[in-house]
């Protein structure tokens, strides 16, 4: 495609100063168009699988991904397959770099989190025929192989439970939505449930916060200092809710007496705090296990596996009660 | 060394059925003796660094490693170096497999946790001249490059604080010590501090538990159901302490009114639970950052870096109080 010899391509990749700028640019253009990645050891890889799978997650510092990965890895290990993990910091460009890096290091396939990514990344996955499975999401109608749950539906159901308790003025601390379809879907689920319920129910305030305790605490303080008087705060995950709870304790605000708090994920933290957090149980372990089985099936080359939707149930705990009179 | 042609070695590695059993065994013996790992793309690697570093941690599902790795990765990223993570499940054999796998995939260097490993692993690291840095530990006199803190000293100091509060009957829930020098050092530190204090102070009970909430809860129930009447329970990490606290709540045992609880690590959980956990602040972020800088310096080939010892301070919080009268 670049109309140059393979030797020139090799030089352009390994020793670019020895190739003219014109040639190098032609080669780079072809590389982009074809989605090519230099293969460390192409000969060995062409002969056999490396029995290594890559998992690319948004953040190492999130207990939810951690326990899912642990389960994913255990099933892979039973099949003699090794796992390498890379993280993206919720940055789509960093995700693409990690995908290329893991494929260049001979990963047989990938686990990716969430279903939406930039066209450039989708193109690369398609052109390189990367075997991958998505997790932590399940969107009806998505044509990608996926093992997860419906974030929108789960948030909708949780909000319905909050409304059923009698709450009408609801606030939300949601995760950063840009580049995170799970955070966006959770927000949309909360909003839609309140809209569907109709007046006098209202989403009185929305704060966006990174998934860290201190940001949950700050957002909660901001919500409580306003005059919109939310009686329930739904949080984008348990870390945000635990941060909110910590700040409530510091401010002398009674949970759930004055305000109810609702988390999402059901990480260990949720049942350890006082009061324990009402939350959505994300099937972390089951997702990890199923995702491994589905990816192994895809790599085996036999009958191609189907997407798997798992349930995400609302867990009633003491942080959710009826609103004060 | 195996007295065979390179072609035979290549066949033995890539297509073993084509090589006689005797030859194969001779080759495997030489491979073991020399610590050789097949190099995916040896030619490319011989020419240049891959700008990828491997981090091999005991468990993905531990918030403490997660935040340290996040910091480690951030410093690497500033230098244009990528990180791949693998985990061992606290199994020394699995650690050796991960070391070999990451080196075979072209890692320039490694971050390893803890300082003690089987001779086979030490041999491999030495013979292959693997550039590595140890973290989460610091042992006076250790000749390995290390960025960490002294687990024994930190546990000794924490126990001294518990004794200073007036506790004389102390129990410990410690992590699994086999193959985990940090857990062993923490246990030794607690034991030694109590011995140095002398009678009537006594370590009345020791339970070993995996680092999970439910095992901490179980161990706490076992300790409280005995008749040794500990007034303080020192835990090998915060997860165990949080599990103990959760069980105390379920059993109606007042912390710290009836029994004090002490954690280790100061993960986010420690300040979120009620009462907040007295604990040892492990310098997770600083360790991650320093470890990255030291490893990068080692890889740069300039002046070789020195080991770095960081402080691990005791944090007083409400879960530690004077014993009941």
CATH topology of the largest domain in chain A: Rossmann fold
Q: What's the number of helices of chain A? A: 12
Average pLDDT confidence of chain A is 90
In the CATH classification, which architecture of the largest domain in chain A applies? 3-Layer(aba) Sandwich
Structural class, from secondary structure content of chain A? alpha/beta
CATH top level assignment of the largest domain in chain A: Alpha Beta
Biggest interface and residues each = A-B, 47 and 47 residues
Strand sequence of the main sheet of chain A, in spatial order? 2-1-3-4-5-11
Describe, in plain words, how this protein is organized in 3D.
Two copies of one chain form a homodimer. With 325 residues, the first copy, chain A, is of the alpha/beta class. Chain A folds into two domains: 51-149 and 285-312, Rossmann fold (3-Layer(aba) Sandwich), CATH 3.40.50.2300; 151-282, Rossmann fold. In chain A, 45% of the residues lie in helices and 16% in strands. Chain A contains twelve helices and twelve strands. In chain A, the strands form three sheets. Chain A has a six-stranded parallel sheet with strand order 2-1-3-4-5-11, sandwiched between helices. In chain A, α8 (181-197) links the parallel β6 and β7 (202-208). Chain A is elongated. The first copy, chain A, starts with 5 loop residues before the first helix and ends in a 10-residue tail after the last strand. The interface between A and B is large, with 47 and 47 residues.
Blueprint (SSEs and pairs):
The structure is a homodimer of 325-residue chains.
Chain A: H1 6-14, H2 21-34, H3 42-47, E1 52-57, H4 63-78, E2 82-87, H5 92-104, E3 109-113, H6 119-127, E4 132-135, E5 146-148, H7 151-164, E6 169-174, H8 181-197, E7 202-208, H9 213-225, E8 232-235, H10 238-251, E9 260-262, H11 268-272, E10 279-281, H12 284-300, E11 308-309, E12 313-315
Parallel strand pairs in A: 1-2, 1-3, 3-4, 4-5, 5-11, 6-7, 6-8, 8-9
Antiparallel strand pairs in A: 10-12
């Amino acid at each position: 495609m670049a109309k140059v010899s393979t030797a020139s391509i090799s030089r352009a990749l390994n020793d670019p100063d020895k190739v003219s700028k014109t040639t190098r640019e032609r080669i780079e253009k072809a590389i982009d168009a074809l989605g090519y990645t230099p293969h460390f050891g192409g000969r060995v890889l062409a002969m056999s699988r490396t029995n290594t799978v890559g998992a690319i997650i948004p953040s190492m510092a999130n207990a939810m991904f951690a326990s899912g990965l642990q389960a994913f890895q255990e099933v892979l290990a039973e099949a003699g397959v090794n796992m390498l993990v890379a993280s993206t910091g919720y940055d789509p460009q960093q995700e693409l770099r990690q995908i290329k890096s893991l494929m260049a290091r001979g990963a047989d396939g990938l686990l990716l989190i969430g279903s939406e990514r930039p066209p450039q990344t989708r193109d690369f996955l398609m052109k390189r025929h990367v075997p991958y499975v998505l997790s932590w999401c399940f969107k009806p109608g998505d044509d990608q192989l996926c093992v997860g749950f419906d974030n929108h539906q789960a948030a909708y159901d949780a909000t319905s439970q909050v409304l059923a308790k009698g709450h009408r003025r609801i606030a939300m601390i949601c995760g950063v939505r840009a580049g995170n379809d799970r955070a966006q879907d959770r927000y949309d689920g909360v909003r839609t449930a309140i809209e569907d319920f109709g007046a006098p129910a209202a989403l009185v305030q929305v704060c966006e916060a990174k998934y860290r305790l201190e940001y949950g605490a700050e957002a909660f303080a901001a919500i409580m200092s306003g005059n919109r008087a939310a009686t329930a705060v739904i949080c984008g995950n348990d870390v945000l809710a635990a941060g909110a709870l910590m700040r409530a304790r510091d401010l002398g605000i009674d949970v759930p007496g004055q305000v109810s708090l609702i988390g999402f994920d059901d990480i260990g933290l949720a049942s350890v705090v006082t009061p324990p957090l009402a939350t959505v149980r994300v099937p972390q372990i089951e997702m990890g296990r199923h995702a491994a089985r589905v990816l192994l099936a895809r790599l085996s080359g036999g009958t191609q596996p189907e997407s798997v939707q798992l349930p995400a149930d609302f867990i009633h705990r003491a942080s959710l009660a009826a609103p004060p009179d």
